[in-house]
Amino acid sequence: MRRGIFWTSAALLGWAQVGYGAALAALRPRVEQAWPDQVDDTALPTVSLIVAAHAERDVIAAKVANALALDYPRDRLEVVVACDGSTDGTPEAARAAGADVVLDLPRGGKVRAQDAAVRRATADVVAFSDANALWAPDALRRLVAPFATDPRIGYVCGRVTFVNPDGGTNQEGVYWRYEMFLRARESDLASVTAGNGAIYATRRDAYVEVDPVMGHDLKFPFTLVRMGWRCVEQPQAHATERMVPDVEGEAARKRRMMSHAWAIVLHGGLLNPRGWPAKYTMMIASHRWLRYFGPALHLVALATAPRWLRRAQLLGLAAAFAPTRARPVLLAKYYILTQGSIALGLVDHVRHGTAAGWDPPEGTR
To answer: First and final CA of the chain: distance in angstroms?
Structure first.
């Protein structure tokens, strides 16, 4: 039985990390969805571009300028900055930069700030971005194109590239490139299982208000799929965002994120497949359930492994924290710390709950 438990846990880990991606690649030839450009400005939907901001005085002016410079008809674009209890001058800086609407809200968290902005908006589409994310000039046109193609599409996420101009040890870029591959294949085959906060949009009538501790990135796609919408990626809608410089800082950021993710897993319906098509349920199980329960599977595999293999695993763990900047070692350290962040995020959520408020991660502004 011990051997069976070991091989089962090892197989599940292998499927989650490698097998699932290989299966997605093999399901059919890789044909990237081509969303047509809308060259007729009068056919473009009206858009409220919403930026939820807390203590973002240093970057909000650049963000507003970036939004106003987008290649999109000005009479069809409304830039809304929803300031979440910002006492550092963010509202004043946003107004001075030319934002159309600035909401100076009491502290309630990012999601509640977004909700308030959507209630204020009257546009056909509500788009969202982080304060430190900069969009390519054509990003908004590209982002809204799928809505005109298929009336079943309720959510579209663009593609964010994480940059580290100052160097550092963070290996997030490697993980993120693989994640983008998985997301593109999920989008082609059914719907994405998660998005990102840097660049995404929903139809106004598809937007749902969720628990304020449950971020849109994970909660929106599977919720909207359950409601009958399709959720897709538009890889031609580009944004860039600064990543945390070092791998330890990235682990701390992921720990905070996972506290919110565990709220969705345990209380937000992620474990309930009701209303999902079978193919989408398989994607959620492979990409989300096994991902979040990965630390537990690693512990089971370690406890039930043959003695020689357990020793090899422990030696590998020790080697990953060797004082070196060699890329393979940094990648191993990143993976181990990421698994630890998932587990610690659960501990934080269970012990202390998850607060709706957030602070910008150090080094990302």
So the answer is: 51
On whether the CB atoms of residues 279 and 190 are closer than 8 A, the answer is: yes
Per-domain residue ranges of the chain: 2-23+266-352, 41-246
Distances from the Cα of 117 to the Cαs of 109, 111, 181, 233, 320, in angstroms? 13, 10, 32, 23, 45
Lowest mean pLDDT among 20-24, 241-245, 280-284: 241-245
pLDDT tens profile 118-168: 999 989 999 999 999 999 999 999 999 999 989 999 999 999 988 776 666
Which strand ranges, in their side-by-side order, compose the sheet holding 77-84?
101-105, 77-84, 47-53, 125-129, 200-203, 153-163, 230-242, 134-135
Kindly provide the b/e burial profile for residues 296-310, where b requires at least 16 CB atoms within 10 angstroms of the residue's own CB.
Answer: ebbebbeebbeeeee
Q: How far apart are CA 82 and CA 80, in angstroms?
A: 6
CA dihedral 235, 164, 54, 82 (to 10 degrees): -30
Distance (Å, whole) CA 245 – CA 231: 31
Provide mean pLDDT across the span 2-11: 93
Q: Which residues contact 151 (CB under 8 A, 6 or more apart)?
A: none
pTM assigned to the model? 0.91
Task: Reply yes or no on domain 41-246 having CATH 3.90.1150.10.
Answer: no
* pLDDT score at 313: 75
